[in-house]
Amino acid sequence: MTDLADIKAAARKAAFARRKAAHEAAGPGEAGHLSEVLAGHRGVPMSGYMAIRTEISPLPAMEEAAAHGPVCVPVIMGRGLPLKFSRWQPGCALREGPFGAMIPAVDDFIEPEILIVPLVAFDRRGGRLGYGGGFYDRTLEMLRAKRPTLAIGFAYGAQEDDTLPLEPTDQPLDMIVTESEVIEIGHGVSGTG
């Protein structure tokens, strides 16, 4: 098991370097394709995220989506637990959550049916390398057991890696949106096929 942990750590380190370079080179408007994708799902409860470090920011797309339906952001409840999602509005009062991500000052938990998922690296088969806490894997597994849940990875194209070290517990993405393209994954909306 340590071998896989070491491989994942090395893959994360390389992916962080690629993401940092892409973030530094990025201009405004990276969320354009994400806004287009979300326009096809107006009114469906969705989760975005408040970007930290060099993550690509979904904020412009979240602001557009909030005009049409509920938008929330993830809240880490504790190690080993699934995420909860607190309702977010443009301009709402925020506070710092675990790991420095901003979350709404007042918790108003809802369950999203679409999740915009941050990541460290992705592949074109829907594989995702995250930060290593397993929060999104646990959360997607829980939500997908209840209803079809669309997981959209949002990343810079430079974060693509065809050699991701994946495990059976890793929940697949249904789509990946980058600053330059929308990558559809062929396993179906629920991510279980």
List the SSEs and their pairings.
Elements: H1 2-25, H2 32-39, E1 46-47, H3 59-66, E2 71-75, E3 84-88, E4 94-96, E5 102-104, E6 114-117, E7 121-122, E8 128-129, H4 135-146, E9 150-154, E10 175-177, E11 182-184
Parallel strand pairs: 1-2, 1-6, 6-9, 9-10
Antiparallel strand pairs: 2-3, 4-5, 7-8, 10-11
Helix pairs in contact: 2-3
Description of the molecule:
It is built from 4 helices and 11 strands; from the N terminus they run H-H-E-H-E-E-E-E-E-E-E-H-E-E-E. The model is unreliable at 188-193 (pLDDT under 50). The protein is 27% helix and 19% strand. A hairpin with a 5-residue loop joins strand 7 and strand 8 (128-129). It has helices at 2-25, 32-39, 59-66, 135-146, and strands at residues 46-47, 71-75, 84-88, 94-96, 102-104, 114-117, 121-122, 128-129, 150-154, 175-177, 182-184. The strands form 3 sheets. Strands 3-2-1-6-9-10-11 form a 7-stranded mixed beta sheet, with helices on both faces. A two-stranded antiparallel sheet has the order 4-5. Strands 7-8 form a two-stranded antiparallel sheet. It is α/β, with parallel strands linked by helices and 193 residues long. It has a single domain, classed as Rossmann fold (3-Layer(aba) Sandwich), CATH 3.40.50.
